[in-house]
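Show me any protein, keeping tokens residue-aligned.
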Amino acid sequence: MAKDLLTQLRDMTTVVADTGDLEAIRRFQPTDATTNPSLILQAAQQPARRERLAEIARRAGDLDDALDAVAVEIGSEISELVPGYVSTEVSARLSFDTDATLARARSLIERYGRHGVGPERILIKVAATWEGIRAAQQLEREGIRTNLTLLFSFAQARACADAGVTLISPFVGRILDWHRAQAPEADFSGERDPGVQSVRRIYEHYKGHGYDTVVMGASFRNAGEILALAGCDRLTISPALLGELAESRGALERRLSPEDAETGALEPLDEAEYRWHMNEDAMATEKLAEGIRKFMEDQRRLEALLGELRQR
């Protein structure tokens, strides 16, 4: 009997859980886990957490302090369930402020240390703006590993690799969303999926040029996108799609391999080139801005929840 697709995927790709749900992490036993403001909000709304959240909110100096305390507490719990990295995001409000991102990232690492979780276990997630990439470059120099998120363009991927970041998270499904909105009748299945094509291009570029930065596809809309990227360094997958893969059978073909990588010299992007390429890419510009706004929307909802709990 053929192995399930999730088991086969694990043989060629590191599987990461895209969730803050501890029960889902226990069930699927991923190597790493990623969180973001939306997932932290979902975890924080669980009734079993309310009493602890109220305690954190009352003890915190302000809402920023409370937000980071909640994120690190949930991340610390996750770290006990996975052997690898836990990704924790810097506030999206700081996406265009390099110095503030640096200060917040260092603070998060210190908080994890007080929970007994070392920096080698944490990836600090930062939006792949020019300012965020510059902050990540400095953090990497300090030994703090980073995960550059909200990544939609080849220009972002090039700048991240030039900066020596540990890992990038190209958003497959959100790229597909944009193209579907522009061309509702088009066939974007399988290899035609523009999100899949984007990750493939980045992966081949990194492998061909010897970059150490890890490519971790994210934000999947269906299992087909995941299967089309089998062989990618890492894939971060929601519990629903992990379950679908675990229940499916059939032969899984490796789709990405270092042997297929492109070669050729490319000069590092400077700020003007980065901004020009982003300006020319309407999809990447719109989805980056939308992603920052969406994360901030969920962060504000979490702030409101913690603010209410502080008054109790």
Q: What stands out?
A: The two ends are 56 Å apart (CA to CA).
